[in-house]
Amino acid sequence: MLSVASQVRYFPTAIIRIEELISFKGAQYPKSVILYAVYFYVRFPISYRDLEEIMAERGVDLDHATLNRWVEKYAGAIAEEAHRRKTPTGRSWRMDETYVKVKGEWTYLYRAIDKEGKTLDFMLSERRDEAAATAFFVKAIGNNGWPDKVVIDKSGSNTVGLFNMNCLLVMCGWCWLITVRRTKYLNNIIEQDHRFIKKLTRPMQTFKSLNSASATLAGIEVAHMIRKGQFDQSEQSGFVQFAALAG
């Protein structure tokens, strides 16, 4: 088995050299090895056991628990940076939620894209209710600005969540409101977009904790954004773009 120091040459090293954004201080393995493992897991439909075997083939002896810790620690932080660096998105939104199992129970992944299919935001919630929908819209607006229009299905909680956003606009003295369209067929684009997420989560089976699920799904969303060309380095490989978000 190769030493940790010698393993770095077996992994892509074309990481954009900018100010360190996410700390890798104290990590036993080189940054490029960690990022390669995390990216591979959130980009392709594999399990931790599969990834453990793949890393072993490249001379890196890891157990699946270490891989899980890396995803939990770094994927969410990279997703936060992705929100700051993604190219501008449109102001006509499509919003919906899909289902993910955590500890054997269904949880709700709230997602929004613009009419061109660019990812706007995402949030995992244990509940599907007014509070969760409102929290999602607060998060999405905080990261993307106010939309002109939001298309949803006939979900009552999502409708009330948008009503709460419009109430906030009125309270702040704005003279316009978000247009809300409750039309299921117009939301086909986001329902199709869910498929990429479901394809990757299927071999993962059920998540063991909400934190693990949130971090993993955040990483998957970033990989999906890279596929869509939502970053300025879209001519570079997916791994290079992912690694650049870590600094």
Automatic annotation (TrEMBL):
GO terms for biological process: DNA integration; DNA recombination; transposition. Residues 84-247 form the Integrase catalytic domain. Pfam families: DDE_Tnp_IS240 (PF13610). GO terms for molecular function: DNA binding. It comes from the Bacteria. Involved in the transposition of the insertion sequence. This is Transposase (Or an inactivated derivative).
